[in-house]
What does this fold into?
Amino acid sequence: MNQSDRSSTQPRAYLVTGGAGMLGQAVVSQLLERERDVRILDIEPAKNDRVEVMVGDIRDTAAVRKACEGMDTVIHAAAAVWDAQLPLGIYEDTNIRGTQVLIDTCMELGVPRFVYSSTLDVVMDGKTGHCMADESVPYPTDVKKMNRYAYSKMIGEQTVLRANGPGFSTCSMRIVGMYGPGDRYHLPNVLKYAQKGMNIHLGNGKAHFSHVFCGNAAHAHILAAENLAPGSPVAGQAYFVTDHHTGNFFEFMDPFLEQMGLRCRKVRIPYGLAYVLCWLVERFSSKSNFNRFTLYSTCVDHTYVHDKATRDFGYRPRFTPEQAFDITLDWLKTQKF
It folds into this structure.
């Protein structure tokens, strides 16, 4: 099959980078429902005997080339996700250079479709908030206020969208706060504190935050891929991907704690006091996740709409809030944190 044939038909052969992660697993599962051929590339071995699993690094040109051969679509979900324990250079090395390696390889091999897993962080400047915002929100101009992860994902997204052209169609899915089976960051961190008897809520509880269930985020990626072609409305575009509703970040987590039997007393730390504490922590412990960017992320409005995704490729959440909650809770009960 030549390049023009591959770009003019429905995608059949998918490479999912980061296929061992929360989003990647959900994408793979839904692709298998559609009876697609799936290959995974991840630095961790994915536990799925129904697909071809390749262990490799997206920064490794040889590994990427081997993974991309024969594919007609790449869903790029692999990333170095924010973790204060990681060296700062890992974000640009993985999220910018690794993404460029994938793009270059796809263009060389004639892989016609590329869907990038981005994040709401690409429009977060560390200062101002957004309330039910759409894709017209600009990138931050003062990148010094962004953390290194947000900056690297912003540059990665810009690189992907610039690569869009007649023979190579690209788009970007801006995932909001994601949760679900495989979550390594949001719910596990809250649960660990709750198990120590601490249910800390930062701010006054009025700030709202958009969440998305991993199954809904995966659904958006696949719909985008199926509608991605040269000249289509999706080509060269970025999209926010959200769920049905918004709410305070910490209040969203409380029902999970209650169902897990962790009914510890809430401790509210006012924004001003929390800011001072974060500043002090940053000065004496650069490896702490308790920092000003985290405070800003949870105590300032960050809500977005997915109207553009609905219009351009028919995205609507596949799972209801009740279904998403039950699936996530069932998974949590099997985990040790």
